[in-house]
Amino acid sequence: MDSRDDRPVELVIDGGAREWARLDAAHRSGDLDDAGWFAAAQAVLVPAYLAGDNPRAQSGHSGDEARWEEARRHILAAVDRPGDLLDVGCASGHLMESLHRWSSGAVEPYGLELSPELADLARRRLPAWAPRIWIGNALYWIPPAGRRFDYVRTGLDYVPAVRRADLIAHLLRHVVARRLVVGSFNEENAERTTERDVTAMGYRIAGRDERPHPDPRVTRRVFWIDV
Question: Is 35 exposed, middle or buried (0-12, 13-18, 19+ CB in 10 A)?
Fold first, then answer.
């Protein structure tokens, strides 16, 4: 059955696409500097996440638990052996606990969150893991005591578009021990814009996974870069 969404495909891919495009345009023009971009993005995301009445909504997902698993579980395609995983932008911590559960404990989760309010929410939800959840901007953050993580999962849209290469370089240089995992994210079926852009930065894609999206125009994707 065709479950094509009535919305334009760019809004199916990312409901905030127009807002992020506006912020990126303002950043490119110089109307927003880095700090202004992050402040504006947080002003959109944080109230919406905190208003959620369940951990999925507090992590930016509007579906039920089955849809959450369908959309996120394939991140584990990047996990080829047990290890610790830092979730960049951990929000409510629900992805941390989900990956731990889905992997039967093979993934030991840690979190990094830019928003103090969301980090506090994750720590309250997951008190046993509270010391594992840090507040910081992934574009600049250095882990404590020089530690690194076997797997680091991030989205590239967590920073201004023109700073994505800087994000990848920083994480690989200072945070990742084995594998940087990008995703899960949505793209039109015929497009591989994100992977193409990362390849153009000089990185080799070590592996990838993709799954169908409820909208037949769109595919869910994840890929990874090995150190």
Answer: exposed
Q: Band the pLDDT of 1: cuts 50, 70, 90.
A: very low
- Per the listing, tokens 């990126």 go with 24
Q: Which two tokens stand for residue 7?
A: 């919305």
User: Cα–Cα distance between 202 and 44 in angstroms, integer?
Assistant: 32
Q: How far apart are the first and last CA of the chain?
A: 42
pLDDT digits (tens, 9 = 90+) for 125-181: 999 999 999 999 999 999 999 899 999 999 999 999 999 999 999 999 999 999 999
**Number of Cβ within a 10 Å radius of residue 85:** 26
| pLDDT score for 146 | 87
The partner residues of 183 in beta bridges, in order of sequence, read 222
CB 198 within 8 A of CB 182: yes
Please, which residues have CB within 8 angstroms of residue 5's CB and are 6 or more apart in sequence? 11, 12, 214, 215
β-bridge pairing 83-88 and 207-212: unpaired
Residue 214 has pLDDT above 90, yes or no: no
Tokens 């959109």, located at residue: 44
